[in-house]
Amino acid sequence: MAMKIRLARGGSKKRPYYSIVAADSRMPRDGRFIEKLGTYAPLLPKGSEDRVKMDVARIQHWLSQGAQPTDRVARMLEAAGVLAKKERANLKKGEPGKATKERAEKKAARAAAASADAE
C-alpha cells in the first residue's frame, strides 16, 4: 500500500482549512485517511503559531514506514526541520513568455537601428 502524507481540504467555500493526514495514495483527496497528523490554516498570518500545527513524532513514524509527503507538506516539514531541504528547480517559471521575448527582440533591433543612424 503506497502511503502519502498530504492535505485534506475542509472549511467552507473560499475559507480553506486543511488537515494534514496519512492516507493511502489511491484514496480521494478529502476521502478516507488512516490518521490525522496536523492542521494547516492558510488564512492566518504567516507568523502565527496556529497556521501550521503538526504531530512531528507521528509524522516521523509515517516517514519511517515509507510514506511520501506531497510537495506542499514537504515544504512545511522542511520549515519545521523534520526533513532536509531539497533543491528545487522551476526553470520555466522565471523564463519570459514568447510574446515578451519577441517584444524584447524588436526593441533591441530598433535600438541597434537607431544607434546605427546616429553614427
Brief synopsis:
By secondary structure, the protein is α+β, with helices and mostly antiparallel strands.
Describe the structure in your own words:
This protein has 119 residues and is of the alpha+beta class. It has a domain at 3-80: S16 Ribosomal Protein, Chain: A (2-Layer Sandwich). Helices cover 34% and strands 26% of the residues. It contains 3 helices and 5 strands. It has helices at 56-64, 71-80, 98-118, and strands spanning 3-12, 15-24, 35-40, 52-54, 68-69. It has a 5-stranded mixed beta sheet. β1 (3-12) and β2 form a beta hairpin. The termini are far apart. 17% of the residues are buried.
List the helices and strands and how they pair.
Layout: E1 3-12, E2 15-24, E3 35-40, E4 52-54, H1 56-64, E5 68-69, H2 71-80, H3 98-118
Parallel strand pairs: 1-5
Antiparallel strand pairs: 1-2, 2-3, 3-4
Helix content: 25-40%
- Strand numbers in spatial order across the main sheet: 4-3-2-1-5
Q: What is the overall shape?
A: elongated
Mean pLDDT: 89
CATH topology category name of the domain at 3-80: S16 Ribosomal Protein, Chain: A
Defining key terms:
119 residues, alpha+beta, S16 Ribosomal Protein, Chain: A, five-stranded mixed beta sheet, 3 helices, 34% helix, elongated
